[in-house]
Amino acid sequence: MTGTPPRPAAEDPRAARTRARLRAALLAECAERPLAELGVAALVRRAGVGRATFYVHYDDLEALAVDACADVVRDAVDALHAWRGRPDPVHAPPALRDFFAGLVPHKELYRELLAPGGGGPLGRVLHRDLRARSLAERELAGAADAPLVASAVAATFAGVLADWLHGLLDAAPGEVADQVWQLLVALHMSR
Description:
The protein is mainly alpha-helical. The chain has ten helices and no strands. α1 packs across α4, α5 runs parallel beside α8 and α9 packs antiparallel against α10.
């Protein structure tokens, strides 16, 4: 599995700026062509850094792409947990609806990194982070079967998200947000 190297607690500001430039260049390039057609040479030209600098920070383009899309994972996890009290079992929280709507501009890139069913490099990160957050919240609440439900929530959300991005589910962003929300509420209520 490719991935980004672990970042030190206090990252060098120059390294952070370089990574930000590389991420921005990747998103701009992927707005013009698929990730599979992108080369390191074009990317570093757009970012204004040397090829060697790219490899100091990332193993390959996929590692950069996953890092560039990591905010999507954080946004997804936050959107799913953006409610307090008793959840509306039918309508997704506004943060979740906004999350799905916000995916549209870079849908092609996310589709390349998130395989149908929720696999792929971005799917692995999404599943890991969502499972960890769900597990922590269920354990904090003293909910039954926390590991089982956390795994089911992570797999369900990653799978539905990926299938929607790949066109296997025909729904507008708000509709798919409500649909996946209903599934997740049912999973939480089942145990």
